[in-house]
Amino acid sequence: MPIDYKTTTEPSYYSGTKYGYSARKIVEDFELSYNVGTAVSYLLRAGKKEGNPAEQDIQKAINHLHFELDKLFKKSDIKSGGLAQWQSMFVNAVKKRT
Prior knowledge:
The chain is mainly α and 98 residues long. It has one domain. Helices cover 58% and strands 0% of the residues. The chain contains four helices and no strands. Helix 1 runs antiparallel to helix 2 and helix 2 runs antiparallel to helix 3 (54-75). It is flat. The N and C termini lie far apart (39 Å).
């Protein structure tokens, strides 16, 4: 059933069932970047949105986390250790898959 955005400001699949916290409010409260916030939202709704399997939402979250890591790596002056080590491992893993 389509969501009526004129009367519903936030679909129920973005809100928790136990405490009612909304994904948007969590992202705002933690002041997350766009990519990290989007990843968190996808993870919180995984398996709840009709027509979107959990695997699809989890993969979307992973993609946004990769985008964020790429952005951080490009900004970083440090090209060894943490991000560089992750970048190297990621590039090697991608090469093996292709």
